[in-house]
């Protein structure tokens, strides 16, 4: 299995802060990675696909980068509605695997 | 816009079989892979398995001996059966659709159901 190591597991931030979350794959996955946002009681919502392409309707403050084994999700200016848990997902090879999640909390 | 909705028994006893169905509205099952994913406090998000409209399946190795995913194209739905459940199988179960038929599209989940809570208790 491809292991996805996501960090940090949680972070505290304020509105307006720049936030960076990292995912590292245990082997190269090209750009077959998505970033998802999940709020309590809801299904994950895809923000980024193909590592760096913004899903339609997602604000441009979200940016994905990376390829191979190192990937980053950056929120340029955190907004109140961005407090949530974020996950990466690799879909390069079976079984599809998720990172452990990063909970973004209010500072 | 594709919509998915999970349904099934939410309370099971240990050793019973978990059975869930995902109803897909808008469009057919053709051309995509349809997955089951679960979320538990101990293991985060875990992909369980997938199926296409032909009935071709793939499962995560750790659950493969207990899992069956099936499809009913006439009803536009697919189902999950997980045998011999234990407390470790409790959590929220989601159905989801991949982005396309190619290998690296199947797990790119674009549409999700809202999820259904499964509790295991004697």
What does this entry show, briefly?
The complex is a heterodimer of chains A (107) and B (122). With 107 residues, chain A is an all-beta fold.
Kindly describe this structure.
The complex is a heterodimer of chains A (107) and B (122). By secondary structure, chain A is mainly β. Helix content of chain A is 0%, strand content 50%. In chain A, strands 2, 4, 5, 6, 9, 10 and 11 form a 7-stranded mixed β-sheet that branches. In chain A, strands 1-3-8-7 form a 4-stranded antiparallel β-sheet, with no helix packed on it. Chain B is mostly beta strands. In chain B, strands 2, 4, 5, 6, 9, 10 and 11 form a 7-stranded mixed β-sheet that branches. Chain B is globular and about 40 Å long. The N and C termini of chain B lie far apart (40 Å). The mean pLDDT of chain B is 95. The chains are: A mainly beta (107), B mainly beta (122). The interface between A and B is medium-sized, with 25 and 25 residues.
Write the layout of secondary structure elements.
The complex is a heterodimer of chains A (107) and B (122).
Chain A: E1 4-7, E2 10-13, E3 19-25, E4 33-38, E5 45-49, E6 53-54, E7 62-67, E8 70-75, E9 85-90, E10 97-98, E11 102-106
Parallel strand pairs in A: 2-11
Antiparallel strand pairs in A: 1-3, 3-8, 4-5, 4-9, 5-6, 7-8, 9-10, 9-11
Chain B: E1 3-8, E2 11-12, E3 18-25, E4 33-40, E5 44-52, E6 57-59, E7 67-72, E8 77-82, E9 91-97, H1 103-106, E10 111-112, E11 116-120
Parallel strand pairs in B: 2-11
Antiparallel strand pairs in B: 1-3, 3-8, 4-5, 4-9, 5-6, 7-8, 9-10, 9-11
Task: Report the sheet-strand fraction of chain B.
Answer: over 45%
Shape of chain A: globular
Strand content of chain A: over 45%
Radius of gyration of chain B (Å): 14 Å
Order of helices and strands of chain A: EEEEEEEEEEE
Instruction: Compute the number of strand runs of chain A.
Output: 11
Count of strand segments of chain B: 11
SSE order of chain B in H/E notation? EEEEEEEEEHEE
Work out the largest interface and the residue count of each chain. Answer: A-B, 25 and 25 residues
Number of helices of chain A: 0
Q: Kindly state the mean pLDDT of chain A as a whole number?
A: 97
Mean pLDDT of chain B: 95
Q: Uncertain regions of chain B: pLDDT < 50 for 5+ in a row? A: none
Helical percentage of chain B? under 10%
Structural class of chain B: mainly beta
